Amino acid sequence: MSVIYIATSILPTPWGDFKIHGFEDAETGQEHIAIAMGDFSGDEPVLCRVHSECLTGDALFSQRCDCGSQLQTAMQRISEEGRGIILYLRQEGRGIGLINKIRAYALQDQGADTVEANERLGFDADLRDYTVCKNMFAHFQIEKLRLMTNNPLKVNALTKLGLEIVNREPIETGQNPSNERYLATKAGKLGHLLGNRE
């Protein structure tokens, strides 16, 4: 799976000026972006986050998840260091899409957890594919990462692509009463390292 670089522009944010880089999946036409700050030359590992699109959390301020808070925290950390990158992948709802995600939310309203809801709709718990990351990181000549994530499966997926994860940096933020069960399910069923679980 290859992605084609399209264009770059300045992205002013509350945390400073980033550059936003547009990419397109050559096979599917799916669009992805990278949000970057600083110089990536040299051998120092790059602070980064691989973030899957979450319209409800990232743009609509949903409290059902921790996605929006994680995205903002990642941007803030990168700004504080003056160097880092976020790959923003268009794979809503752990890969099931926005409308199916709303269907899954409806099942959660009736008592299902996030994994059960996906499975009742006929999907695996997590359908995300990180293959595009390899070419996106290669565009910036990035090979060594300090990866902001709580998800060991993401670490494994990127490692299999040939990237070196020098350090996994926890990004626990955005906890609230509305996502307590969601976070517990991510830890208990999806293996996310939350609450000092190692």
Task: Summarize this structure as a short list of keywords or feature phrases.
globular, alpha/beta, seven-stranded mixed sheet, 36% helix, 198 residues
Please tell me about this protein's structure.
With 198 residues, this protein is α/β, with parallel strands linked by helices. The chain has 8 helices and 7 strands, in the order ββββααβααααβαβα. It has helices at residues 55-59, 67-81, 92-95, 98-109, 114-120, 132-139, 152-160, 180-190, and strands at 3-13, 16-25, 31-37, 46-52, 84-89, 144-148, 164-169. The chain has a 7-stranded mixed β-sheet, sandwiched between helices. Helix 7 links the parallel strand 6 and strand 7 (164-169). Helix 4 crosses helix 5 (114-120). The model has no long low-confidence stretch (mean pLDDT 90).
Q: DSSP strand (E) fraction?
A: 25-35%
The largest β sheet comes out as: 7 strands, mixed
Oligomer: single chain
Question: What is the string of helix and strand elements?
Answer: EEEEHHEHHHHEHEH
By DSSP, the count of extended strands is 7
Q: Could you name the ranges where pLDDT drops below 50 across 5 or more consecutive residues?
A: none
> What global shape is seen?
globular
How far from one another are the termini?
32 Å
Strands of the widest sheet, in order across it, are 1-2-3-5-4-6-7
User: How large is the radius of gyration?
Assistant: 16 Å
Fraction in helix: 25-40%
Structural class: alpha/beta
Mean pLDDT: 90
Q: What's the tally of helices?
A: 8
